[in-house]
Amino acid sequence: MPLPLRIDRWPIADRPRERLLRDGPAVLSDAELLAVVLGTGHASGGATALDLAREVLGERGLPALTEAGAPALVGIPGVGAAKAARVAAALELGRRAGRGRPDRPQLKTPADVVAAAADLLHDADRERLVVLSADTKHRLLGCDVVSIGTLDGSPAHPREVFKSAIRRNAAAIALVHNHPSGDPTPSPEDRAVTRRMHQAGKLLGIPLLDHVVVGDTRYVSLRAEGMID
Fold first, then answer.
1. Domain range 110-221, CATH architecture
2. Looking at 70-79, 138-147, 179-188, which range is the least confident one?
């Protein structure tokens, strides 16, 4: 059964805008973020805003969209001048914000990893697993929340972890997640995840720099504990 055109008829937990407000923009895919900007889909084609966003992104994704001007977007069925203007404005705001940022930090130490993910983990009442993508010099490319768990844990799969890294053309990654209990002692599952991601990184050519577990006032680096060579 096809989904209705209006996303506001979807279950609340599935709506991109509500997920953004609840968990932050980092949990949304590029298509979901664009769907929030577009607002509505293509009535005549029966497409939701998310369907339209995927069509706009196409095979080349966000990099191609940033190069396209508003006139090019107007030519896509279902976009129109108003939506094209909103997308162009959002992209320009992102560019201007990026120009105002300081040089990208390097992920040299566990403290660097924790600092880079601090905003995404602040006051989180559930476990969040954050992937920090880095370039060949281990400079930060971006942060993505790839898993939000219950108080009992945050399951992770290499597919989700490395998807964001590949999208950002990362040469390496670091992982960081919080323990809402306040105790950063790595659990057996934390160690298993580290081993799994370490091996997956070797296979993909995107090495795992570190996996840091954060508590209330301290953190534990699994590289420092000898789990990552």
1. 3-Layer(aba) Sandwich (3.40)
2. 70-79
**Cα 182 → chain centroid:** 24
Residues 152, 31: Cα–Cα separation, whole Å: 30
Please list the helix, strand and coil fractions of the chain in percent, rounded to the nearest 5, in that order. Answer: 45, 15, 35
Q: Which residue has the tokens 């659990």?
A: 187
> Does residue 1 have a pLDDT over 50?
no
φ, ψ at 57 (rounded to 5°): -70, -35
pLDDT in tens, 189-223: 999 999 999 999 999 999 999 999 999 889 999 99
Spatial CB neighbours of 47, under 8 Å, sequence gap ≥ 6:
5, 41, 55, 78
Give CATH 3.40.140.10 domain extents, the chain.
110-221
